[in-house]
Specification:
- With 388 residues, the chain is an alpha/beta fold.
- It folds into two domains: 203 residues, Rossmann fold; 173 residues, 3-Layer(aba) Sandwich (Rossmann fold), CATH 3.40.50.2000.
- The chain is 41% helix and 19% strand.
- The longest helix is centred in the first third of the chain and has 20 residues.
- GO terms for molecular function: transferase activity.
Protein backbone atom coordinates (compact mmCIF):
# COMPACT_ATOMS: atom_id res chain seq x y z
CA UNK A 1 0.00 0.00 0.00
CA UNK A 2 1.46 3.31 -1.12
CA UNK A 3 1.27 6.05 1.52
CA UNK A 4 0.53 9.71 0.95
CA UNK A 5 3.62 11.87 1.25
CA UNK A 6 2.19 14.66 3.36
CA UNK A 7 -1.05 15.12 5.29
CA UNK A 8 -2.05 18.27 7.18
CA UNK A 9 -4.10 18.11 10.38
CA UNK A 10 -5.91 21.36 11.29
CA UNK A 11 -7.54 22.19 14.60
CA UNK A 12 -7.67 25.03 17.12
CA UNK A 13 -5.91 22.68 19.49
CA UNK A 14 -4.26 23.41 22.79
CA UNK A 15 -0.57 22.61 22.52
CA UNK A 16 2.41 23.77 24.54
CA UNK A 17 6.02 23.72 23.38
CA UNK A 18 8.60 23.16 26.10
CA UNK A 19 12.11 24.59 26.20
CA UNK A 20 13.52 21.28 24.95
CA UNK A 21 11.39 21.56 21.79
CA UNK A 22 8.96 18.80 22.72
CA UNK A 23 5.26 19.51 22.27
CA UNK A 24 2.62 18.61 24.85
CA UNK A 25 -1.17 18.43 24.66
CA UNK A 26 -3.58 19.57 27.33
CA UNK A 27 -6.13 16.99 26.24
CA UNK A 28 -6.78 14.41 23.57
CA UNK A 29 -3.58 14.33 21.51
CA UNK A 30 -1.10 11.89 23.05
CA UNK A 31 1.71 10.92 20.69
CA UNK A 32 0.29 7.45 20.08
CA UNK A 33 -2.92 8.87 18.60
CA UNK A 34 -1.10 10.27 15.55
CA UNK A 35 -0.41 6.68 14.53
CA UNK A 36 -3.92 6.29 13.08
CA UNK A 37 -2.98 8.83 10.37
CA UNK A 38 0.67 7.83 9.96
CA UNK A 39 -0.39 4.38 8.80
CA UNK A 40 -1.37 6.12 5.55
CA UNK A 41 1.00 9.12 5.44
CA UNK A 42 4.76 9.47 5.49
CA UNK A 43 4.52 12.80 7.33
CA UNK A 44 1.83 14.56 9.36
CA UNK A 45 1.82 18.34 9.75
CA UNK A 46 -0.22 19.51 12.75
CA UNK A 47 -1.39 23.11 12.32
CA UNK A 48 -2.84 24.48 15.54
CA UNK A 49 -2.54 27.05 18.30
CA UNK A 50 0.54 26.59 20.42
CA UNK A 51 2.25 28.54 23.17
CA UNK A 52 5.71 28.31 24.73
CA UNK A 53 6.28 27.08 28.26
CA UNK A 54 9.53 26.57 30.12
CA UNK A 55 8.26 23.25 31.45
CA UNK A 56 5.08 22.18 29.67
CA UNK A 57 2.43 20.13 31.45
CA UNK A 58 0.08 17.60 29.90
CA UNK A 59 0.70 14.51 27.78
CA UNK A 60 3.57 14.25 25.33
CA UNK A 61 2.33 14.83 21.77
CA UNK A 62 5.65 14.91 19.90
CA UNK A 63 6.76 11.86 17.97
CA UNK A 64 8.67 10.92 14.84
CA UNK A 65 7.17 11.92 11.46
CA UNK A 66 4.94 14.55 13.09
CA UNK A 67 5.75 18.25 12.75
CA UNK A 68 3.92 21.03 14.58
CA UNK A 69 3.26 24.38 12.89
CA UNK A 70 2.03 27.22 15.07
CA UNK A 71 -1.09 29.04 13.81
CA UNK A 72 -2.27 32.16 15.65
CA UNK A 73 -5.69 32.11 17.29
CA UNK A 74 -8.68 33.29 15.26
CA UNK A 75 -11.24 32.34 17.89
CA UNK A 76 -12.36 35.80 18.97
CA UNK A 77 -13.45 38.93 17.08
CA UNK A 78 -10.21 40.68 18.00
CA UNK A 79 -8.07 37.75 16.89
CA UNK A 80 -9.96 37.48 13.60
CA UNK A 81 -9.05 41.09 12.82
CA UNK A 82 -5.43 40.86 13.94
CA UNK A 83 -4.41 37.26 13.22
CA UNK A 84 -6.49 35.96 10.31
CA UNK A 85 -4.14 37.20 7.52
CA UNK A 86 -1.15 35.42 9.10
CA UNK A 87 -3.23 32.30 9.85
CA UNK A 88 -4.38 32.21 6.22
CA UNK A 89 -0.81 32.60 4.96
CA UNK A 90 0.47 29.72 7.11
CA UNK A 91 -2.39 27.39 6.20
CA UNK A 92 -2.16 28.19 2.49
CA UNK A 93 1.52 27.26 2.53
CA UNK A 94 1.06 24.00 4.41
CA UNK A 95 -2.11 22.85 2.64
CA UNK A 96 -0.63 23.79 -0.73
CA UNK A 97 2.17 21.28 -0.13
CA UNK A 98 -0.14 18.55 1.21
CA UNK A 99 -1.80 15.56 -0.43
CA UNK A 100 -4.78 15.62 1.93
CA UNK A 101 -6.26 17.72 4.72
CA UNK A 102 -7.75 16.34 7.95
CA UNK A 103 -9.82 18.78 10.00
CA UNK A 104 -11.18 18.39 13.50
CA UNK A 105 -14.37 20.38 14.06
CA UNK A 106 -15.66 22.51 15.57
CA UNK A 107 -12.66 24.83 15.21
CA UNK A 108 -12.02 28.16 13.51
CA UNK A 109 -8.61 27.09 12.21
CA UNK A 110 -10.27 23.97 10.82
CA UNK A 111 -12.98 25.92 9.00
CA UNK A 112 -10.43 28.31 7.49
CA UNK A 113 -8.33 25.32 6.39
CA UNK A 114 -11.35 23.79 4.63
CA UNK A 115 -12.02 27.05 2.79
CA UNK A 116 -8.41 27.13 1.59
CA UNK A 117 -8.44 23.44 0.62
CA UNK A 118 -11.58 23.88 -1.49
CA UNK A 119 -10.02 26.85 -3.29
CA UNK A 120 -6.81 24.88 -3.93
CA UNK A 121 -8.70 21.78 -5.05
CA UNK A 122 -7.39 19.63 -2.19
CA UNK A 123 -9.33 16.71 -0.73
CA UNK A 124 -10.30 16.94 2.92
CA UNK A 125 -11.83 14.74 5.61
CA UNK A 126 -13.46 15.80 8.87
CA UNK A 127 -13.56 14.55 12.43
CA UNK A 128 -16.59 15.91 14.29
CA UNK A 129 -16.11 15.82 18.06
CA UNK A 130 -18.93 18.04 19.32
CA UNK A 131 -21.91 20.26 18.59
CA UNK A 132 -20.84 23.94 18.42
CA UNK A 133 -24.39 25.14 18.98
CA UNK A 134 -24.64 23.74 22.49
CA UNK A 135 -20.95 24.38 23.21
CA UNK A 136 -21.25 28.13 22.66
CA UNK A 137 -24.78 28.47 24.02
CA UNK A 138 -23.33 28.51 27.55
CA UNK A 139 -20.23 30.58 26.83
CA UNK A 140 -19.44 33.41 29.24
CA UNK A 141 -19.05 35.90 26.37
CA UNK A 142 -22.19 37.34 24.75
CA UNK A 143 -20.58 37.45 21.30
CA UNK A 144 -19.91 33.70 21.50
CA UNK A 145 -23.52 32.91 22.39
CA UNK A 146 -24.76 35.08 19.51
CA UNK A 147 -22.26 33.42 17.15
CA UNK A 148 -23.34 29.86 18.04
CA UNK A 149 -26.09 29.46 15.36
CA UNK A 150 -23.79 30.81 12.64
CA UNK A 151 -20.93 28.52 13.66
CA UNK A 152 -23.32 25.57 13.66
CA UNK A 153 -24.41 26.47 10.12
CA UNK A 154 -20.77 26.78 8.97
CA UNK A 155 -19.91 23.37 10.40
CA UNK A 156 -23.01 21.80 8.82
CA UNK A 157 -22.07 23.21 5.39
CA UNK A 158 -18.47 22.08 5.73
CA UNK A 159 -19.50 18.50 6.53
CA UNK A 160 -22.06 18.46 3.72
CA UNK A 161 -19.25 19.37 1.29
CA UNK A 162 -16.66 16.95 2.68
CA UNK A 163 -15.54 13.70 1.10
CA UNK A 164 -15.67 11.92 4.45
CA UNK A 165 -16.58 12.50 8.11
CA UNK A 166 -15.97 10.40 11.19
CA UNK A 167 -18.14 11.14 14.23
CA UNK A 168 -17.50 10.48 17.92
CA UNK A 169 -21.17 9.60 18.47
CA UNK A 170 -23.20 6.74 17.06
CA UNK A 171 -26.33 8.79 16.24
CA UNK A 172 -26.51 12.23 17.84
CA UNK A 173 -24.07 14.31 15.80
CA UNK A 174 -24.89 12.43 12.59
CA UNK A 175 -28.49 13.62 12.83
CA UNK A 176 -27.45 17.24 13.36
CA UNK A 177 -24.56 17.38 10.87
CA UNK A 178 -25.11 14.80 8.09
CA UNK A 179 -22.40 13.83 5.60
CA UNK A 180 -23.33 12.66 2.12
CA UNK A 181 -19.91 11.09 1.58
CA UNK A 182 -18.09 8.37 3.48
CA UNK A 183 -18.99 8.32 7.18
CA UNK A 184 -18.14 6.28 10.25
CA UNK A 185 -18.60 6.34 14.00
CA UNK A 186 -15.68 5.96 16.39
CA UNK A 187 -15.27 7.75 19.69
CA UNK A 188 -11.97 9.51 20.32
CA UNK A 189 -11.66 7.34 23.42
CA UNK A 190 -8.87 4.83 23.81
CA UNK A 191 -9.56 2.40 26.63
CA UNK A 192 -8.25 -1.04 27.40
CA UNK A 193 -10.60 -2.97 29.65
CA UNK A 194 -9.36 -4.79 32.72
CA UNK A 195 -10.99 -8.19 33.33
CA UNK A 196 -14.43 -7.85 34.93
CA UNK A 197 -13.28 -9.97 37.87
CA UNK A 198 -10.66 -7.34 38.73
CA UNK A 199 -13.13 -4.47 38.37
CA UNK A 200 -15.73 -6.30 40.43
CA UNK A 201 -13.23 -6.84 43.24
CA UNK A 202 -12.59 -3.08 43.45
CA UNK A 203 -16.36 -2.41 43.47
CA UNK A 204 -16.90 -4.88 46.32
CA UNK A 205 -14.31 -3.04 48.43
CA UNK A 206 -16.21 0.21 47.89
CA UNK A 207 -19.38 -1.32 49.27
CA UNK A 208 -17.73 -1.42 52.71
CA UNK A 209 -17.00 2.31 52.76
CA UNK A 210 -19.27 4.38 54.97
CA UNK A 211 -18.93 7.64 53.04
CA UNK A 212 -19.77 7.49 49.34
CA UNK A 213 -18.02 9.71 46.83
CA UNK A 214 -19.10 11.11 43.46
CA UNK A 215 -16.36 11.76 40.92
CA UNK A 216 -16.36 14.29 38.09
CA UNK A 217 -13.62 14.97 35.54
CA UNK A 218 -13.60 18.21 33.56
CA UNK A 219 -11.83 21.46 32.90
CA UNK A 220 -12.97 24.41 34.97
CA UNK A 221 -11.74 26.97 32.45
CA UNK A 222 -15.35 27.14 31.21
CA UNK A 223 -18.64 26.02 32.75
CA UNK A 224 -19.28 23.39 30.04
CA UNK A 225 -18.73 20.42 32.36
CA UNK A 226 -21.40 21.52 34.84
CA UNK A 227 -19.27 21.36 37.98
CA UNK A 228 -21.48 24.02 39.55
CA UNK A 229 -24.55 21.86 38.85
CA UNK A 230 -22.93 18.94 40.65
CA UNK A 231 -22.09 21.11 43.67
CA UNK A 232 -25.66 22.38 43.90
CA UNK A 233 -26.98 18.82 43.58
CA UNK A 234 -24.62 17.64 46.32
CA UNK A 235 -25.82 20.39 48.66
CA UNK A 236 -29.39 19.05 48.44
CA UNK A 237 -28.19 15.57 49.43
CA UNK A 238 -26.17 16.90 52.35
CA UNK A 239 -29.23 18.87 53.44
CA UNK A 240 -31.17 15.59 53.59
CA UNK A 241 -28.53 14.03 55.83
CA UNK A 242 -26.68 11.86 53.29
CA UNK A 243 -23.01 11.23 54.04
CA UNK A 244 -21.32 11.80 50.69
CA UNK A 245 -18.74 13.98 48.97
CA UNK A 246 -17.79 15.27 45.54
CA UNK A 247 -14.29 14.89 44.04
CA UNK A 248 -13.36 16.94 40.95
CA UNK A 249 -10.40 16.23 38.70
CA UNK A 250 -9.44 18.92 36.19
CA UNK A 251 -7.53 22.07 35.42
CA UNK A 252 -8.57 25.72 35.63
CA UNK A 253 -9.27 28.30 38.29
CA UNK A 254 -11.86 26.95 40.72
CA UNK A 255 -12.04 29.83 43.20
CA UNK A 256 -15.59 30.65 42.10
CA UNK A 257 -16.62 27.03 42.61
CA UNK A 258 -15.07 26.99 46.08
CA UNK A 259 -17.07 30.13 46.84
CA UNK A 260 -20.22 28.43 45.58
CA UNK A 261 -19.60 25.37 47.76
CA UNK A 262 -18.98 27.65 50.73
CA UNK A 263 -22.17 29.62 50.16
CA UNK A 264 -24.14 26.35 50.06
CA UNK A 265 -22.50 25.03 53.20
CA UNK A 266 -20.73 22.09 51.56
CA UNK A 267 -17.15 23.39 51.28
CA UNK A 268 -15.88 20.51 53.44
CA UNK A 269 -17.61 18.00 51.15
CA UNK A 270 -16.16 19.23 47.85
CA UNK A 271 -12.59 18.31 46.92
CA UNK A 272 -10.59 19.72 44.00
CA UNK A 273 -8.05 16.99 43.28
CA UNK A 274 -5.98 18.77 40.61
CA UNK A 275 -4.94 16.87 37.49
CA UNK A 276 -3.28 13.59 36.58
CA UNK A 277 -0.65 13.22 33.87
CA UNK A 278 -1.39 9.73 32.62
CA UNK A 279 -4.30 7.43 31.93
CA UNK A 280 -3.27 4.90 34.63
CA UNK A 281 -3.28 7.72 37.19
CA UNK A 282 -6.77 8.79 36.08
CA UNK A 283 -8.03 5.21 36.37
CA UNK A 284 -6.50 4.95 39.84
CA UNK A 285 -8.38 8.12 40.84
CA UNK A 286 -11.61 6.72 39.41
CA UNK A 287 -11.17 3.56 41.48
CA UNK A 288 -11.35 5.75 44.58
CA UNK A 289 -14.84 7.00 43.64
CA UNK A 290 -18.15 5.24 44.29
CA UNK A 291 -20.12 6.87 41.46
CA UNK A 292 -19.43 9.17 38.51
CA UNK A 293 -21.20 12.32 37.27
CA UNK A 294 -21.28 13.90 33.78
CA UNK A 295 -23.56 16.98 34.18
CA UNK A 296 -22.24 18.63 30.99
CA UNK A 297 -23.93 21.63 29.40
CA UNK A 298 -22.30 20.68 26.09
CA UNK A 299 -20.76 17.40 25.03
CA UNK A 300 -19.68 15.21 22.17
CA UNK A 301 -19.12 11.73 23.52
CA UNK A 302 -17.40 12.16 26.89
CA UNK A 303 -14.19 10.18 27.19
CA UNK A 304 -14.07 10.52 30.97
CA UNK A 305 -17.55 9.01 31.34
CA UNK A 306 -16.57 5.99 29.26
CA UNK A 307 -13.39 5.61 31.33
CA UNK A 308 -15.46 5.74 34.53
CA UNK A 309 -17.88 3.15 33.17
CA UNK A 310 -14.94 0.94 32.20
CA UNK A 311 -14.12 0.85 35.93
CA UNK A 312 -17.70 -0.22 36.69
CA UNK A 313 -18.86 3.08 38.16
CA UNK A 314 -22.65 3.58 38.11
CA UNK A 315 -23.01 7.03 36.56
CA UNK A 316 -25.45 9.89 36.06
CA UNK A 317 -25.38 12.52 33.35
CA UNK A 318 -27.19 15.27 31.47
CA UNK A 319 -29.17 14.84 28.26
CA UNK A 320 -26.56 16.67 26.14
CA UNK A 321 -24.60 15.38 23.16
CA UNK A 322 -23.85 11.68 23.13
CA UNK A 323 -24.38 11.10 26.87
CA UNK A 324 -27.80 9.43 26.31
CA UNK A 325 -26.01 6.92 24.06
CA UNK A 326 -24.08 5.73 27.12
CA UNK A 327 -26.43 5.85 30.10
CA UNK A 328 -29.80 4.29 30.93
CA UNK A 329 -32.64 6.77 30.65
CA UNK A 330 -33.25 6.55 34.41
CA UNK A 331 -29.75 7.92 35.06
CA UNK A 332 -30.16 10.99 32.80
CA UNK A 333 -31.44 14.36 33.99
CA UNK A 334 -32.95 17.01 31.72
CA UNK A 335 -32.84 20.79 31.32
CA UNK A 336 -29.63 21.19 33.35
CA UNK A 337 -31.71 21.12 36.55
CA UNK A 338 -29.58 20.34 39.62
CA UNK A 339 -32.69 19.05 41.37
CA UNK A 340 -33.01 16.33 38.73
CA UNK A 341 -29.35 15.37 39.11
CA UNK A 342 -29.69 15.32 42.90
CA UNK A 343 -32.65 12.93 42.68
CA UNK A 344 -30.60 10.49 40.57
CA UNK A 345 -27.62 10.81 42.93
CA UNK A 346 -29.93 9.93 45.82
CA UNK A 347 -31.12 6.81 43.98
CA UNK A 348 -27.49 5.82 43.42
CA UNK A 349 -26.72 6.23 47.11
CA UNK A 350 -29.66 3.98 47.97
CA UNK A 351 -28.61 1.10 45.69
CA UNK A 352 -28.34 -2.22 47.51
CA UNK A 353 -25.05 -4.15 47.11
CA UNK A 354 -26.43 -6.47 44.44
CA UNK A 355 -28.01 -3.52 42.59
CA UNK A 356 -24.74 -1.59 42.76
CA UNK A 357 -22.78 -4.48 41.27
CA UNK A 358 -25.41 -5.00 38.56
CA UNK A 359 -25.31 -1.30 37.61
CA UNK A 360 -21.51 -1.50 37.57
CA UNK A 361 -21.59 -4.53 35.27
CA UNK A 362 -23.98 -2.77 32.89
CA UNK A 363 -21.69 0.26 32.80
CA UNK A 364 -18.67 -1.96 32.15
CA UNK A 365 -20.38 -3.75 29.27
CA UNK A 366 -21.37 -0.44 27.65
CA UNK A 367 -17.78 0.79 27.91
CA UNK A 368 -16.61 -2.42 26.21
CA UNK A 369 -18.16 -1.15 22.97
CA UNK A 370 -15.49 1.58 23.01
CA UNK A 371 -12.53 -0.66 23.74
CA UNK A 372 -9.51 0.33 21.75
CA UNK A 373 -9.20 -2.87 19.72
CA UNK A 374 -12.77 -2.44 18.45
CA UNK A 375 -12.44 1.24 17.54
CA UNK A 376 -8.99 0.87 15.99
CA UNK A 377 -10.44 -1.39 13.30
CA UNK A 378 -13.21 1.12 12.50
CA UNK A 379 -10.72 4.00 12.34
CA UNK A 380 -8.30 2.02 10.19
CA UNK A 381 -10.96 1.15 7.61
CA UNK A 382 -12.26 4.72 7.56
CA UNK A 383 -8.87 6.37 7.08
CA UNK A 384 -7.79 3.76 4.55
CA UNK A 385 -10.82 4.49 2.39
CA UNK A 386 -10.67 8.24 3.00
CA UNK A 387 -6.95 8.81 2.42
CA UNK A 388 -5.81 6.13 -0.02
Amino acid sequence: MKKLSRVVFAYDGGFAKAADGKVYSQGGFPAENWGRYLEFAEELIVTARMHDEESAAGVLSSRDRVAFVRVPSISSPTHVLTNRPLAREILEREIGLADHLIVRLPSEIGLLAIRIARRLGKKFSIELVGDPLTALAHHKKLYARLYAPLLSLRVRRAIARSQACIYVTRRTLQALYPCTGLSASASNVNITLAPWSDVQEVLRIKLNKQRKSFGLIGSMVTNYKGVDIAIRALSLLIGKGHDCELHILGSGDHAHLEDLAGSLGVAEKVYFDGTRNSSPEVLEWLDQQTFYLQPSRSEGLPRSLIEAMSRGLPSAGSDRGGIPELLPESFIFANMEHTGLSAIMERLLELQPDEYLKAGRNAYETAAIYERKNLDEIRYNFWKESLI
